[in-house]
Specification:
Length: about 550
């Protein structure tokens, strides 16, 4: 996801120690209650969100807002069933390693796209070949680092040829943002396909097809009866997703019953307000989102392309920022406890997670320490105050981002060691600027693609990573590749811990919070508990009007 993300994965991974919050509204549901109902649930559902779509071409986006659409309309070879972190065949009949470097998938018979085109192994090969060939800076192609080639020997057989044997995460990558299967008769092989062409081509084969598409205003879905995948037929035939620029308007429509579901993002203050409303029931469950600052190794203070370039001073600046961040204050004051402090690049609850950031920075116990930051900068010969241009998105990570980064600015400046120029940009432009070296330091969030520590390491720290922030460490790169192909669990865990320790010293990114996703549903909507289920996918189809 991204947030990228990598942007929201398919079901929330049930891992201990990662908090999330879901809200269930007790007022009457809104939307088009007289619409043609589907499945067992009755009328149409209307969903509200402040997320943004960058593109619905899988090769061109790695963010939660875009992937929320892709999850509904594209099929995957592997998917995660409700309540499980493990992947299983989706539109595949079977999937298995047929040799240490060959992963063979057999498709179900009779698969079609909503436009009537057959879905065959040729489409699968095309989908992965184009993902790698396009290699868009905002896309998820970096997840396919171990993919050497794809063969389609017949209409239902696909063979993935891997560069390194015994890949422990490749089946999960097939369920990730790198995994949607697209129609080779509609999509371009070597360039992104415009959203309008995708919609006009009706190139969908997931649980839903898009019937109306007004980007970041309104998207309408109808259930696709040709979907034969793991998730089964949707409970609701018709879904309308309305996009809000202001979370306060989203909250207002929740309270007035104008929408059935609010999905990303209400402010922590709004959550607290709704928590005290007797018409709202709050559900708590597991989550895996993280928040972090990304440093551009070229343009940050003392970065490689700046006039005063100095690697030792650059790392001292990053580490001093780590000394000064007060995570507890951010979690409590801005997010009212819906987020918790994060002291590693792998969040608490996943196998292999340790907390090197707590030990190496600040007071050594999780708190900030201005003296430690001052000593670090002085030892490197850095003149203070350091001028830091820090960017955040005002519309992608929820309405509290402004308060979040105002507090980070205050934490850095009250030490006297930094002068922070705080700037903000809307997400559609932000996603382009961040990979064009426009931002020396900037906000990102991450919604995991699959339930493995690898997903918090590979996309960020391989030499060819989706951050495009010019970070490269060959030893870290090799360790990541090694852990992904280490079959022994104890050996693999030790490698994951070693990687965390090394990247904590480099600090190409600085994680500071982990938490939470929020959904608000009306009482005439059933399946509310499933809206935030086990693998980070918001499953519209699990909901129905009662």
């Amino acid at each position: 996801m991204n947030s990228l993300s990598r942007s929201g994965r398919r079901t929330l991974v049930a891992t201990a120690g990662i908090a999330t919050t879901a809200l269930v509204l007790s007022a009457c549901g809104g939307g088009d209650g007289d619409g043609e109902g589907g499945g067992s649930g009755g009328g149409a559902l209307t969903i509200g969100t402040t997320d943004k779509i960058t593109t619905i071409d899988p090769a061109g986006s790695y963010d939660n807002g875009s992937f929320a659409v892709m999850n509904q309309v594209y099929p995957f070879l592997m998917n995660t069933p409700m309540g499980s972190p493990d992947v299983e065949p989706d539109i595949a009949e079977s999937a298995e390693f047929t040799s240490p470097t060959e992963y063979t998938v057999t498709l179900k018979d009779g698969l079609t796209f909503a436009n009537g085109n057959e879905l065959t192994a040729s489409d699968v090969k095309f989908s992965f070949d184009r993902m790698v060939a396009i290699n868009d800076e905002n896309g998820p192609a970096s997840l396919l680092y171990n993919l050497e080639s794809v063969d389609a020997p017949d209409d239902t057989t696909v063979v993935f040829n891997l560069a390194s044997p015994d890949d422990q995460v490749f089946p999960q990558i097939l369920s990730s943002p790198a995994g949607p299967i697209v129609d080779e008769d509609v999509f371009a092989a070597d360039a992104l396909t415009p959203d309008e062409e995708i919609v006009d081509g009706n190139a969908f084969a997931g649980p839903y097809a898009i019937t109306n598409y007004d980007q970041n205003n309104l998207v309408s879905y109808e259930a696709f009866d040709g979907y034969q995948g793991l998730l089964g037929a949707p409970e609701t035939d018709t879904i309308n997703v309305a996009y809000y620029t202001d979370a306060s308007n989203l909250k207002l429509d929740v309270q007035e019953g104008n929408i059935d579901v609010a999905w990303r993002s209400l402010s922590a203050t709004d959550i607290e307000d709704l928590r005290g409303n007797d018409q709202v029931e709050v559900l708590d469950g597991p989550g895996g989102e993280i928040r972090y600052i990304t440093f551009n190794f070229d343009t940050q203070p003392y970065g490689a392309t700046t006039p005063e370039a100095d690697p030792a001073k650059a790392v001292a600046v990053r580490q001093a920022v780590a000394d000064l961040i007060d995570r507890e204050e951010l979690a409590d004051q801005v997010y009212k406890g819906t987020y918790t402090p994060l002291y590693s690049h792998v969040p608490e609850g996943l196998t292999g997670a340790i907390e090197p950031l707590m030990e190496q920075y600040g007071d050594g116990s999780g708190g900030a320490d201005a003296d430690a930051a001052a000593q670090r900068l002085q030892a490197a010969g850095v003149q203070t105050p350091v001028e830091l241009n820090l960017q955040y998105s005002n519309d992608h990570y929820g309405p509290s981002s402004g308060d979040e980064y105002a507090l980070i600015k205050n934490q850095l400046e009250e030490s006297g060691l930094f002068t922070v120029n705080l700037q903000t940009t809307e997400w559609v432009q932000y996603s382009k600027d961040r990979v064009a070296d426009v931002y020396p330091a900037y906000q990102l969030g991450w919604f995991p693609d699959y339930s493995d520590a690898d997903n918090y390491l590979t996309p960020f720290f391989l030499t060819e990573n989706f951050l495009a922030n010019h970070y490269s460490d060959q030893e870290v790169n090799d360790l990541i590749l090694q852990q992904a192909t280490t079959a022994d669990p104890a050996e693999r865990q030790a490698l994951i811990e070693e990687i965390q320790t090394q990247v904590a010293e480099d600090l190409s990114t600085l994680p500071y919070l982990q938490g939470a996703q929020v959904a608000v549903t009306g009482t005439d909507v059933s399946g509310a508990e499933d809206t935030l289920d086990a693998s980070f996918k918001f499953r519209y189809g699990a909901l129905s009007k009662g």
